Amino acid sequence: MDNKCQVIELHKVKGEKGNIVIAEGNLEIPFDIKRIFYIYEVSRDTMRGAHANRNSEFVLICVKGSVKVKIKYAKEEEIYTLDVEDKGLYIPKMVWKEMYDFSEDAILLCISSKEYDPQEYIREYDKFLQEVSL
Ligand code: TYD
Question: Which of 47, 53, 59, 132 gives 111 a disulfide partner, CB atoms 3.0 to 4.6 angstroms apart?
Answer without folding.
Answer: 59
